[in-house]
Amino acid sequence: MNKAKKLIITGIAAATLVLPFPTLLLLPLL
């Protein structure tokens, strides 16, 4: 149970860190 919770938190943290980069790279194209 605790391992699954940690995995979800890690996934959310990774998504939060990774998602802004493609957005910043695509911004000049818009």
Which labels suit this protein?
mainly alpha; 30 residues; 2 helices; 80% helix; single chain
Radius of gyration, whole Å: 14 Å
Taken from the alpha-carbon principal axes, the silhouette is rod-shaped
Main β-sheet description: none
What multimeric state do the chains show?
single chain
Percentage of residues in strands: under 5%
Distance between the termini: 43 Å
Helix count, DSSP H or I runs of 4 or more residues? 2
Keywords: Membrane, Transmembrane, Transmembrane helix
Transmembrane segments: 7-27
Structure characterization notes:
Keywords: Membrane, Transmembrane, Transmembrane helix. With 30 residues, the chain is mostly helical. The protein contains two helices and no strands.
List the topology elements:
Elements: H1 2-18, H2 20-26
Quick description:
By secondary structure, the chain is an all-alpha fold. It contains two helices and no strands.
